[in-house]
Amino acid sequence: MFWSFAQPTTVIDDLFNQEDLQLETLLEEDDLLQECKAHNSNLIRYFSNPEIIKKLLNYITNPPEELDELKKLKYSYLSCEILSCDIWPILDAIMENTDALVDFWKFVDRDEPLEIFQASYFCKVNLVLLQYKLPEMLQFIRGHPDILSKILKHISSSPIAEILLKLISISDREEANGIIEWLQQEKVIPNLVSRFDPFLDDETHTNIANTLIDINSVSYTSPLLTNDLLTANIDGVNSFLSSSITNFGGNALVDELKSKEIVEQLVKYMLDEKAPNSTSSLIHGTTVIIDLIRRYCGDIEQAEYQQHQYDHFQQENIRDENQYQDVVPPNPPTTAQFEKLSLALNDLLNVLGNNLEKFEYLLLHPKSINGPIPTTLGEVVPLGTERLRVCELFAEVIHLQYLYSSSPLFDRIVFEQKEEEKKRTLVEELITITDKFTERKMLPICLNLFFEFPWNNFLHSVVYDMIAKIFNTCSYLVTATNLTNEVDDENQLSAEEQMFSSLSEETKERMNMIKNSVIKLTDSILDEGQLPQKIVKAQKLNDEEEKKEKGLRLGYMGHLTHISDEICKLMSKCSNQFSDKINDYINGKDWNDYINNSLQETKNRDCQALGGQRPNNDTITNISFGYQPQDFEYDSQEDQYRLNIGATDFGDEEDDMNEFDVNGFESMISSNNSNRDSHERFFENSSEDEMDSSEEEDWINGLDNQDKLDSNLLGQSEWTADFSDFDNHINGGSLDDQDKLNDWANFDEAFSPDKINAVNISTSSNDSRDENTSGLDKENILGDLDNNNIVDTLNNLTLDEKESKDTNNEGDSK
């Protein structure tokens, strides 16, 4: 028999035997995409035909009108998938058919809005072409200058915006050299920012804000590193990390977005008092500015990480040079990086500081608030998104100040400039805007909003973040600059003081300037904002609310607990930096009563477990045999597991009974002498992982009550007998394993917790019973056990000599 190596023919292959095969016939076949992705040679040749390419492109953007809607969608989808299959002959045919590609791009000539499905398919095909045919596509786009303006025209459409982001993300590839400069020349950023015009609709503002944030993200992310990570190219990752990071601080488009001209235009749109949609411009414009500040903070952290990696490598290399001789050493941050950090946000902070008065007016007189609105708490004047966004913007500026001032690279970030090129650095801008915060009383205004809206936790989180960062900055700078000449040993200095002592005199002066500015802002919070007084007042108000019927704890109380802790930490380090008025109140009766009583009670309550005290395993008693789980010594974890299975009825009953080893259980019982002290058994069989010291104490204290517990459960403590005695008295210990299991089941049923509890309930409800009367007679407990004469035998069972004598006398009298 001979094997045939000929490929089997498919239905689609049979179609090519037709003389006049139509594209629509192929598009109706269910296996078309599968065969195309399998690189069917007949299909590849067919779809590489220029006429077929033109038809496929037309089906995506301009399907024939005579087709019904279902076929339009189907043919558009299939055409898009065929052209996006990464098949090189088809991609080559597209790029060679320039006329068809020009007609394809006429799709963006249409008026807004574009049909979403067609826009998605149009985007997918072009992204594949930009990925695999980049030089040809860039030549085509640059050869038609109006294409970029048409893309910007439809930038509100997410699929079209993806094409612009793709052009930015490929800037690191050699074939795309100069693409960022070209986009900058085409004024992409000014065109996008102009869409924040407050006379445009809210949807446009939302889309433009998202696009600019995406541009930031793409500009800060290296596609080369991303590709190396995705392809597990470790050499590429190491090479990237060891070299200077090319995307540090973003690219030229991000620099343009942070320029003074662009930021001024954006803030002008945001603060327009007459335009109908200026609130929307403010909300979304603030989002873009916040993203820029956060990216800059990420640059500082990235520089710190690079420096840490470099220092760590140097230390390890000193210890063992041979170990790292083949490793590419990491590079520290470059001078260009520090220069960029020193000047990156100067224009942005300057513009914000110049318009701080208008932001203050917005906090006091929001444009979007027209009066109270109905809520579950009644009619309430809302905070409004615009005021929340302004507070978030202030919080980001304060966070930037904290991160900048406390950075271990502070002396290098404060870049020394040449006299002829000297510009205002970030230090000067931070000091200026901090002083304006103090002058305009911005933090007291935010504190007033905090207490005015007790149920807005978004606002509470933002204000708490501002206060915590200001207090931490103040504490850090006061500690770092509080040096004395009396200390000779540097090891006696704190980390902050060691860092400060190594700075140049000019840098120390700048840090002192920041410190003085922050102290003034902190004083404004404590004095003009009356933060401690408002906290005490809020606590009293909360206590009154909780006492009411169905009273609730006010929504800001959790944040006030954290803020109070921050005040305590601040005053413990910097009390001498503030006025006597503040210190007098902090040391006064009202604040101390709050700290020592209400705050301490709240913190103690917060430290407790949510579910209460952890249940103690010792309360789980095996009533059938009168033993605790810790009374046994287990030969293995399997024995412990099996015993736990038997005690809790966990798992399959039949499997548990078949697997239980009666002899092993009896030997376990007999190996633990019942006369051993319970305290000794506990400490021999317990571990620190099972109980902490408080639980041990509770367990030991409960041992004395164990006999009382057994007595309450059984009526007489002597009825807690083990199975070994039970078997010996009944059968003389002569039963085989199966019979023992049967008797054990009967015994366990008689002394089951459910049956005993039922007996206890009935006896405890009998008020006529004398207190001195002993527990239930054995007949009442064991009356339902009638097989193997167990009842008669148990009636004669004695546990000690005295009981045996009393039982025998009682029997004789009967």
TrEMBL record:
GO cellular component, one term: nucleus
GO molecular function, one term: protein phosphatase regulator activity
Region annotation Disordered: where it falls in the sequence: 669-695, 759-784
Pfam family, one: SAPS
InterPro entries: SAPS
Keyword annotations of the record: Cell cycle
UniProt entry tagged with the keyword Ubl conjugation: no
Basic and acidic residues bias (residue ranges): 767-781
Comp. bias regions, Acidic residues: 686-695
Similarity section: Belongs to the SAPS family.
Protein name (Swiss-Prot/TrEMBL): SAPS-domain-containing protein
Gene source species: Piromyces finnis
Lineage: Eukaryota, Fungi, Fungi incertae sedis, Chytridiomycota, Chytridiomycota incertae sedis
